[in-house]
Amino acid sequence: MHEMSIAQNILEIIQDHIHEEDAPNVRSIKIRIGELAGVVHDSLTFCFSTMVSGTPLQKATLDIVTIPVTAHCNACGKENRLEYGVFVCSLCNSFDIRIMTGSELNVVEIELDD
Amino acid sequence: MSVITIERKILGKNDEVAEQNRNQFLQHKIFVFNLVSSPGSGKTSILERTLEHLAGTINVAVIEGDVQTDFDAQRVAKYNIPVVQIVTRGGCHLDASLVREALQKMTLTGFQLLIIENVGNLVCPANYDLGEALKVVVVSTTEGDDKPLKYPEMFRNASVLLINKIDLLPYVNCDLTVLKRNALQINSQLTVFETSCTTKSGIPEWCGWIIGKIPAK
What we know:
The structure holds 2 protein chains of 2 kinds.
Chain A: H1 3-17, E1 26-34, H2 41-52, E2 61-67, E3 70-73, E4 79-81, E5 97-101, E6 105-112
Parallel strand pairs in A: 1-2
Antiparallel strand pairs in A: 1-6, 3-4, 3-5
Chain B: E1 2-9, H1 12-27, E2 31-37, H2 43-54, E3 60-66, H3 71-77, E4 83-87, H4 96-104, E5 113-117, E6 134-140, H5 147-150, H6 152-157, E7 160-164, H7 176-186, E8 191-194, H8 203-213
Parallel strand pairs in B: 2-5, 2-6, 3-4, 3-5, 6-7, 7-8
Helix pairs in contact in B: 1-4, 2-8
């Protein structure tokens, strides 16, 4: 259940970036979560909504973009998408791969109603 | 409608504090590893056998993380080494700030090794850098040989795998070859040791590896 602590961190980032009086206007927060980040989306959404409930940010929702796991294969030189939990080049079956994406855990942008 | 672009790591604050911890460790030339596993794999038992084996060779300090109780710190303190217990009171992982607080209660001067025993959990601790040099993951034979496939992030993020309770192999449904294959499929760079805290098999090899990691003063 580290989703609660992740929700808390998202909240702090929002507070760092908006003026207090703008809080009621925050409509959504776009966040990017890699498949390897180990975050349960429903759980994070639930934790976040619980946290903002009854606060000036209560209208704010999370807009989660999932980032697939991709890797560069050092054997065949190609980039390819990996199946979750399988760290093998999907093109040539080599284990000699470098993960390119999939570990992201970022706040991308905040959308406000004017 | 207006949009504020941010592009910030959600755990950026943790990463910043972890970097500060790491700098502190580098300054003191102390090797630090983060010991992770599910509850009951034998982290504390491995710690005890390790402390016994390393006694008189290098100076070791320990940070213990648990959800509740200081039982582990009591076990470790018997070896007459400095130990700080972090009680997370429900928190499922240690984070860099908790480790920083613990560091304020201890001195690193004169120590060559700091072992941080994380909360027993194969999911959440994978996300939180504490400032350690590397992660050591423990899996025991009683947990079955499919553990690495079920918790790929942790095995991917670790540098060392300790397969513990190796003495119980004849009694449990665990194929050592399959377990290793599963782990190496997730992370082919893993250094693997097979250990038993009862027979002490594998402990000298594991401790030899630790000694090899201690920075020269």
